[in-house]
Amino acid sequence: MTFSDPIWTKQETPVWIKLNKAEYLKACVKEGLRLFFGALRGSARRNLVAPIVYKDWVIPFGTPVGMSAWMLNTDPEVYPDPLAFRPERWLPGNHKPEMDRNFASLGRGSRTCLGIHLVYVFMRHLLVAMFGPGDRPELTLYETEESDVATTVSGLSGLAKRGARGLRVVVEWMSAC
Ligand code: HEM
């Protein structure tokens, strides 16, 4: 199966075994999460037992240490043209190990998102329901500009500028028959 093959028909309920092989769908979810950032700045952790040694640096024990999902997810050396939504970068052949190393939208390490697998299942199913063949909602952008959604402010998660109206769409139900 290639990502250009239709992976299900109108009559068929999408099942995980097929969704998991749909490379372009998986790439869209990954790229969407990359630009959503998750927790923009992960909660700081502290080692209360011993100093942390990293390369030439020694960080005294008890020092809060955190990482920036923004900086990791938009590193131009890892993701060229980092603010562009380009699912193709995650496709086999383009996908490089450092992209997984930098991807921080679901946290990293021992406190990584507990719902990580559910996130991928739900998001793939959701995209199929919204954009797959068969009966589905047709969404048309309504009075929304990029600045209404672009991450500008760091809360725990990323926020758009003050006064932004958020993403607004008109929803129409489309019957495929
Ligand atoms: C798109 C959806 C989601 C995103 C972007 C997301 C993102 C994150 C991030 C970035 C963290 C780590 C925060 C930190 O470093 O302190 C986290 C932690 C966590 N997430 Fe999610 N999450 C999502 C959905 C879910 C779902 C569906 C569940 C549960 C069903 C879940 C449960 C948790 C829990 C329990 C933690 C805390 C883990 C710990 O501290 O040990 N998340 N999530």
Automatic annotation (TrEMBL):
Keyword terms, alphabetized = Heme, Iron, Metal-binding, Monooxygenase, Oxidoreductase
A Pfam family found in this protein is p450
* InterPro entries, per database record: Cyt_P450, Cyt_P450_E_grp-IV, Cyt_P450_sf, Cytochrome_P450_monoxygenase
The source's superkingdom equals: Eukaryota
Cofactor(s) for this UniProt protein? heme
Family listed: Belongs to the cytochrome P450 family.
Q: What is this protein called?
A: Cytochrome P450 E-class, group I
Organism (species): Podospora pseudoanserina
